[in-house]
Amino acid sequence: MIVILTALDLEYQAVRRHLTDLRVHRHTAGTRFELGCIAGDGHRVALGLVGKGNHPSAVIAERAIAEFSPSALLFVGVAGALWSGIGLGDVVVATHVYAYHGGTSEDDGLKARPRVWEIDHESDQIARHLYRTETWTRRLPAGAAVPALRFGPIAAGEVVQDSAISAHAQWVRQTYNDALAIEMESAGVAQAAHHNRSLPMAVVRGISDHADGNKTATDGLNWQPKAAANAAAFAMALAHELTVEHENRPASKAKEANSMSDSVKNVARDNARVGVQAGHIYGDVTIGHSSQNQVADPVAQLAELRDRLARARKAQEVDEDTFTAAEGEIAVAAESLSESTEAGRSKAVIALKKLRGLLADVAELAAHVSAVIAAIRSVL
């Protein structure tokens, strides 16, 4: 899954137009995301609104990362160009992001102490391939002119820049004279991605003004929605390619990179001793000699299955309707097992067979259900 964040409602709407099968996903703290599929390819996307500023964007980005465990994070919207040669409607893909408000004030002036985050290599390579092939332009609104696509730094601060001659404007242009555009959110998003094992992150901005005192005029000519639509078109093409790239990786490598196996077995021979080697531990831990005749506890296995189902729901591997139905069958099985009778165990097996059918698309959960059925049948 890819997470896409925007700051403004018009930016959100520009991305939303490229999605189908939308449904609301409510975070426990009240944040509302929408889950959908990229039109035409079915790849899943979570869309969220962060509001203005680097601080709220960092909070919501962190929340989205924790909620969805995405393979990449995109920030999409509009920005002001810092140089007159950059046209209105052009799309800027950040090579790196300056958090330009870091500094120290001394007697001879303000000295910059920025923080900088670079786009990851893979996202940069995919973005440049899209630029060379121009395939992304197919996602532009019908009849829209093809904008220029530019790669370069973006400066992210805490003020709306709308002057070419103010002291602040001159300082930004002199200190960050390689930056193509200026805005207020991407530094927060970049930092959140960096603190989550350097999650792949890209910033895509459409130019809606020149940050030169004419913002009111350009807004009046509807350059914000035009620029947002251009940025959204490129971002959706990038999201598609990032998802395909992630799906095509060998499953063993992806699993090794992101998590440990559900089962860790340590064997000691002769005088050797081992401890427990694991990350997060779910379910039972057994320490001692293994036995081929050891019978698994179906009640414990069922409790572990419920936990794994909840994690699969949070990771969006199981949709809400399937989760609700599966929870119902687990409840029937648990109640039937509590009767401690042959009839109850038979009833539990029937419920679990239904459950296995519901979870057939999630191989690991279906296998776990089969293991519970086997454990129950061993005592029938």
From TrEMBL:
Gene3D superfamilies: Nucleoside phosphorylase domain. SUPFAM superfamilies: Purine and uridine phosphorylases. This is Purine phosphorylase. InterPro entries: Nucleoside_phosphorylase_d (IPR000845), Nucleoside_phosphorylase_sf (IPR035994). It comes from Nonomuraea insulae. It comes from the Bacteria. Pfam families: PNP_UDP_1. Residues 2-238 form the Nucleoside phosphorylase domain.
